[in-house]
Amino acid sequence: MDLSNCFAQVAVERKHEEECDEDNYLYCEDCEKMLKNGCSVHSFKVPNSRMKWGMPKRAQRTCPRGILIGMSDILIGKSGSWTIIDFSKNTVFGPYEGEYIDQHNMQRFCPSHEGGYSWGIYKNGKLSHYIDGGDESKSSWLRYIRRARNEEEQNVEAFQFQGKIYFRTIKNIAKRSELLFWYDKKYAEFLGLLTKEASRKKMEELAPKPFCLF
């Protein structure tokens, strides 16, 4: 009996299980290893306040204790996320909430959604869909975390865990600080963050092409 095909099939199935399970692991710098469901010793989770979906100003109302939405120092005239208490390194905020947008249904986006409110969710290394936080009544307070002007200003980072986007502090953050994340163009593509340029390009790709018989 030739068992080579059986062993090959088992190997494929195990690899698939490992890929599916990767989303449940997080790396802990202090433990220096990947841990399933994250590290319970060196990280502290701060969940969103629960609010009714679709209610006015829902995003602001989901702020947990210690977070306040005020005017950003980075984007003039825009809101930002501010700390009103001290937060230690490895504090996890989230999840980022928004509307589910299938990658093949990009026509649903409008210009107000471009430029940083949409995050890509990956499954088995491939883009699955976007979470769009453009609508304040259907999002969470993390939509107000702004991009830093440079990498040195960054104090939080975004990451995917169990099919959702979270933000994690990368240093101790004192009260009265604005939460800021950083990404360059290449890293934005890795995160699946739908930037204004990427959004327009995607819309152009999906636009109907003129039909010609010759």
UniProtKB/TrEMBL annotation:
Residues 65-184 form the SET domain. The keyword Nucleus applies. It is found in: Nucleus. Keywords: Nucleus. It comes from the Eukaryota. This is SET domain-containing protein. It comes from Clavelina lepadiformis (Light-bulb sea squirt).
